[in-house]
Amino acid sequence: MKNLIKYIVIISVFAGIVSCDTILEPIDENRLDYDFVSSDPASAEGILLNGYSRLVDQFTFIEAATDDAVSNQNSDNFKRMATELNAQFNPASRWNNFESVLWVNKFLEIINAGEIVWSPNEEINEMFYMRMEGEALALRGLHHFYALQAHAGFGTSGQLLGVPYFTEFIESDGNFNTPRLSFEATVQAIMADFDAALALLPTDYSDDPGAVDPIYQQYDFNNYQVVNGSFYNLRISGRIVKALKARLALFAASPSFLNDQSYYSMAASFASELLNTIGGVSGLAANGLDYYKAYDEDNDAEMIWRGNIQGSPSAGIERRMFPPSVNGSGEINPTQNFVDAFPMQSGFPATAANGYDPQDPYADRDPRLAEFVVLNGSSFGGGNINTGVGGGIDRLDSIPEFSTKTGYYLKKTLHPGVRLNDDGTAVGQRHYDVYFRYTELFLIFAEAANEVGGPDQQINGMSARDVIAAIRERAGLDQPDNYLASITSKEAMRNLIRNERRIELSFEGHRFWDLRRWGLSLNEPAAGYFFNGSDYISIPSVEDRDYPSLYMPIPNDEVLKFPEIEQNAGW
């Protein structure tokens, strides 16, 4: 955290805010001192924009540290983490998110001085102050949440602890020796920042006069549009903050942390109120299952928050993940554990009693399986992929660090229109980062509502059963859904919701964190499945996992430097 530079190099500005006559000649080797930054609108906003760094998107592939996938790259940090996690080596650490916190605290310090003039128009100037303060507070809460998610745990004292909460900028030579708050105090501090942000942010950035929130209705709409119009789409908004509150409440309520009904009630209430703005269960987006097939900026019904769509086509992710016969590196390999999570087409679990045939393992299965995983015999990436005998370089363990280790390759999140040519060129496609999808919000509601009152507990016009029914119908499972109809207890619905979450949010960075908050084992061996030319054979353990604890360590160097920071037990 002490690496935050004293002089800020402005790397990004919004041209629409500042007129040409504010552009200055370079000064002091292009470094801008505090007096300049605190009075120049573009420079100050450049500091705020640094708060948008370190957002967590769907391309982390932390699944390689879980029972859902392995990496074929021996140097992959998440592969190593599954057996080597310690206080000196933790690739999932988010302690450096505090640097983003300090950026937004610096911005808040600047605007609280009140010296910046965003516009000579008084209304516009006032609204810029409101909105940007709201952004900063929301981002501060979010980065503390990221740190909490990764580092909350029982300290050496036996108390359930959160993380330090920084509300002021600290100079590089300042005092970072700040103790961790209790877990619940950290949650409450994040909620307070989110609530303060909601009092300042528009629900949506819009050019529609009918979409103006009450706090902004006193202003001339033309002025409002300058500050909160659609130009600012994709920056953090009130809608996004409401979704983040639901995510935080569910995390806090989970068995590994507070295991608290009041937080489940909060999560269900926050989620349902926001979902009702899109029509409740009827608003479940049709493209929520396969948004990644297009990354379509003109069809955002599934997106609560995403990044900008790329300006130019690319193929970087696909080059890492496509099977080797279509010129990829086959890096992330889904496991048999993950494949087993998909039910039969009937919606019943994949067991012999329900028609599952281990020698015809992909017949009559949930359609999502073939959408998310490259199965033996699949067509993908412009070729036919065989992972068993006769599969050539796609065959299991054929080429180290290229061929699959489990019998499967990844489809989920990859753009199917990408082609990797034999000469090294590629037909790329445009992608965007995803930070929050409506499907996640529906699943947050279902989990929380079930914990509050069981499968049929109605909260703001919805129940867990309603949501899971809509998700499974969208997936293409047989209707009526007789398996769902057979679920009557909270415990059975809990297991189904967790399985649906595993499938629907797969390979978007959720599984590792979900296993931890549910208190489930991280040490399930990663299994594979191989066609030997005549039969499929099981590989019970492709990779073992050896996590000492569900609770992750604080970085050792932080604990050594700052004795007020209590380490989690066992590290």
From TrEMBL:
Pfam families: SusD-like_3, SusD_RagB. InterPro entries: SusD-like_N, SusD_RagB_dom, TPR-like_helical_dom_sf. Residues 318-571 form the RagB/SusD domain. GO terms for cellular component: cell outer membrane. Its main location: membrane. Keywords: Cell outer membrane, Membrane, Signal. Residues 58-206 form the SusD-like N-terminal domain. It is found in: Cell outer membrane. Belongs to the SusD family. This is Putative outer membrane starch-binding protein. It comes from Seonamhaeicola aphaedonensis.
